[in-house]
Specification:
The protein has 142 residues and is mainly beta. The chain has two helices and ten strands. β8 and β9 form a beta hairpin.
Length: 142
């Protein structure tokens, strides 16, 4: 089987690399069309919905998965949600108009001091593979 090159790239960056316990933790994600053709991608439009179509792993410094918050358990695990989705066509080399924001602390319990590694992935329908951003590390302090 011939493997296709990915049609998208994603980059992730924490809005702050160190936060106090109990503070909000946000990660910005940028998606870019790196193919030579127009590409239509799913986006949430306005609102905090990016968590639904990215695969996100939040790991503590021992490599264990951070627990979900009550909302994370309800929405991400039990999938009890309805969202509006939008599609945007990107020309070759074009990125989504707006960076997408992931509200990590809304969905995962990162309230304990320590280092957390956040891995953001997204399925690339054009190449039929998962594309992964470089991990983001955030330190939570007392």
């Amino acid at each position: 089987m011939i493997e296709k090159d990915p049609a998208i790239s994603i980059t992730a960056a924490a809005e702050e690399n160190a936060i106090k316990a109990g503070s909000e933790l946000w990660v910005d994600v940028a998606l870019k069309n790196i193919s030579s053709q127009d590409l239509t991608v799913l986006t949430g439009g306005a609102g905090p919905t990016a968590e639904y179509y990215y695969r996100i792993e939040v790991l503590d410094e021992k490599g264990a998965a951070a627990p979900f918050t009550k909302r994370g358990d309800l929405d991400l695990v039990k999938r009890s949600w309805r969202i509006k989705v939008y599609y945007q066509t990107l020309k070759p080399g074009e990125a989504l108009r707006d960076k997408e924001r992931l509200f990590i602390s809304e969905w995962w319990d990162v309230s304990q001091p320590g280092k957390y590694s956040i891995v953001v992935q997204r399925f690339d329908g054009a190449s039929r593979q998962v594309v992964r951003a470089s991990p983001v590390t955030v330190t939570v302090t007392d």
